[in-house]
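Let us work through a complete example step by step.
Step 1: write down the sequence.
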Amino acid sequence: MGAYREYRPPAGLEPVVACVWESDALVDGVQRVVPDGCVDLVWLGDRLLVVGADTRPMVWQAVGAPASGIRLRPGMAGAVLGVPADEVRDQRVPLSLLWPAAADLTDRPEAEDPSARLRLLTEAVLHRKAEPDPLVGAAVRRLAVAGARVSAVAYDLGISERHLNRRVTAAVGYGPKLLARVARLRRLVATGEGALADRAYSAGYASQAHMTDEVRRLTGLTPVRFLEDATLTAA
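Step 2: predict the structure and record it as tokens.
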């Protein structure tokens, strides 16, 4: 398995980008990626892809191919991509299908140098001049709080649940209910060591059985197996 490294967002992109990252070539085996509420722009070998928000675990089999990319913050994908984020949900598509100018990035001589690819991609994202949607940002923050209910978040923001669902889905890639479940999974990872029942309670699950069901749905693994290797990535 290749090593994975995250770095701080580039200057000027902090409100838009959660991190930039690099992953060495997979020598053997596969890499499991679980939902995190984010959309990534990824250099995989010589391809430039949009990796849409995942609603289920995805297994990458890319032996020999190093990767690097930019992870967009939850709620920023729609603004950066220029299309509703749910159009690329659970998909990996060439970025050039959404940004025709992205084809020029892969053709530039600098793109032959892996160390230059993130700079090229960062400049392209800066050029988009995407601005956060304050309402979506407020919804994402509220939905990340333990015990958050979609109806209460919509009420607090002064909009209907239908309006909240439409805005969040277009910006994130899926609706507020799933986003809240993903946030709860991330809280579970962040709880550290301890008995599963205690970690389930701390993360905001109704019970250990509830946690087990949701972890299986989102990761494809049992909680014990998932938490053995789980680390909290930037989002």
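Step 3: interpret the result. The chain has two domains: 4-128, 134-229.
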